[in-house]
Write a structure and sequence with these properties.
- This protein is mostly beta strands.
- Helices cover about 0% and strands about 50% of the residues.
- It has no helices and 26 strands.
- It has a 4-stranded antiparallel sheet, with no helix packed on it. Strands 5-6-7-8 form a 4-stranded antiparallel sheet, with no helix packed on it.
- Strand 25 and strand 26 form a beta hairpin.
- About 5% of the residues have low confidence.
Length: about 260
Amino acid sequence: METVAISSCGHWVAAGGEDTVVRLWDVVNYSGVPHASFQGYGNAWTSIVFSPDSTHIASASDDGTVWIWNIQTGEKKHVLTHGGSVKCLAYLSSGELLASGGKNCKIWDVKTGELEADLQHKRSVATIASSWDGMKLWLGTEDRVVHDWSCAANGQDTALVSTTAFSGDFQYVASSLGGNAVHLWETESGKRGPILDGHSGSIECLSFSPVSNLLVTGSSDGTVGIWDSRTGKSVKRLKEHSGVVTGTAFSPKGDQFAT
């Protein structure tokens, strides 16, 4: 599996990878087998996100397409043509818009499947995070820069990357810069916060708890780190994985996370 996501209602977990199938599990009434499976064209899935209302899944593929599925019916709602490998996805605000990142960042109308905006960058977009109100996007590009886009003005500020996430209160943004440490910044001031350093391999994924200061990181060293994001101190290190940890996501209540 290359990517994992948990729905905002806490009912569903979805995961996908090189076998081109997105598998959906019901974690409330867990049976040990997927509740549903969604089949792609034939390329690996690189990113999965749930819509804010937990009714749809968007999945990105190496073949340059983005698929949107209805969870209950299994119906394929849209296949969006981004072009080039798509590395990351994020829903904006109430879920009316979807951002996809690859050689550039594209904003889509989820209802119609129409392209709303094309945000150009010199280097490929590796990760996307959106603010709670959908008015701001943070794009991490392969030149190790986080770009701060205002969706209202369609303008851009460059702040100072392989993966990015907002804290539950949106006061902090965390990014890894392709190494084995995570850097934190205050979203309003841009002031640098603690540096979380402790993995022996590169950071492949990270996620904030929605209700606390905890931050979880997954690394190429096969370990999962749990951190206090305000102090920068390590809380716990998990070694259950036998290989690279490529995805992590918290449940809505923050009492569980998946890797």
